[in-house]
Amino acid sequence: MQDTLNKYLPERAVSLSMELIKENGVHLKIVNQRVTRHGDYRRMPNGSHQITVNATLNKYRFLITLVHEIAHLVAFEKYGRKIKPHGLEWKRTFQFLMLPFLRPEVFPNHLLPLLAKHFRNPKASSDTDAGLSLALKRFDVQDSEKTYIFELPHGSIFRIYNGKLFQKKNKRVKRYECIEVATGKVYLFQPNAEVELIKD
Question: What is the reported pTM?
Answer without folding.
Answer: 0.76
